[in-house]
Amino acid sequence: MPGGLGRVVRIPGTPISFRTHTRVLAVGVALLVVGFVLLVLAVGTGEYPIGFGDVVSTLLGGGDQGQRFIVETIRLPRALTALLVGAALGAAGAIFQSVTRNPLGSPDIIGFTSGASAGAVLQIVVFDGGAGPVAVGALVGGLGTAALVWLLAFKGGEGVQGYRLILIGIGISFVMVGVTNYLLTRARLEDAATANVWITGSLNGRGWDQVVPVAIALAVVLPLTFVLARELRMMEMGDDAAGALGVSVDRSRAGLLLLAVVLTAVATSSTGPVLFVALAAPQISRRLTRVTGPGVGSAALTGGVLLIASDFLAQRVFPDQQLAVGVVTGVLGGVYLIWLLWNEWRGNRA
């Protein structure tokens, strides 16, 4: 039942077990189906349309040479990047919000995305602006900002508290936005144009070089997160309660935040800063599943569906000129945030 204890499932031959609910499984299957349908639609539509069945046949190894080239080389990498980056951001957002026990505890708000943007723009403006170096610059910027926020939020004897992490992260975010803006004012015109495209968040021109790193990060981080699911759930009850139940709070929080930062940094390095997916996906997934707890898996599936749906809209709202997907997620996320704050305000007045 929603919000209940659910059913414990154990993986044979391993010490790993997890608790699940029928509704959670149903929502997960539905999200997988929706994600697959959106992927096929995204791959099959464009200047050279390919039928739904032909796309599925090509994905399974069929299709003629022209269809395989369009699907496998041109369109599929972009669609997969959208699904994987959305899943990474959704999972990261679920971890951040669970650890901080705050619905605003997402990498967009805390500043890690801004740090990745500053690192990428620094690489474009000062050093080499190639795709590989820019991705490395974003990765280093995101990880470096996370380390700085952690050090400033750490207080001896208390560790890192969620509210302190958010407040310091917001401050660091403004600093990183200022650094980015300064770099743009000092850049050459062509470098500034390249940087502006990147910091908007875009899936244009994405290939298998962007798919592989995010896929590897998800394959490594998600299983580790599921292993730490018990600690994550206990920490939502408060540090004292989690400590009384045998959880090493500071160590678990540091490990979980590191996993979330890696997902955020790798995702941002692949597409640029795609806003609000990490903020909205965990909360939407909780409303769909109606189950309390971190819900990292369902948040990842929701994030993937959100981003590929946003990219589908970005390519087709204005057929003559494609929008960057960050523009669409920013608009949709802003509307969602207003709706969320309005509901909270009405709930407090009731």
UniProtKB/TrEMBL annotation:
Instruction: Tell me one Pfam family matched here.
Output: FecCD
Q: How does it sit in the membrane?
A: Multi-pass membrane protein
Bilayer-spanning residue ranges: 24-44, 79-97, 109-127, 133-153, 165-184, 211-229, 256-281, 293-314, 323-342
| Family annotation (CDD domains) | TM_ABC_iron-siderophores_like
- GO terms, biological process: siderophore-iron import into cell
Q: Report the GO molecular function annotations.
A: transmembrane transporter activity
Q: Which GO terms describe its cellular component?
A: plasma membrane
Task: Spell out the subcellular localization from the entry.
Answer: Cell membrane
> Which keywords describe this protein according to UniProt?
Cell membrane, Membrane, Transmembrane, Transmembrane helix, Transport
PANTHER family referenced in this protein's UniProt entry, alphabetically: FERRIC ENTEROBACTIN TRANSPORT SYSTEM PERMEASE PROTEIN, FERRIC ENTEROBACTIN TRANSPORT SYSTEM PERMEASE PROTEIN FEPG
Q: What is this protein called?
A: Unannotated protein
Q: Which organism is it from?
A: freshwater metagenome
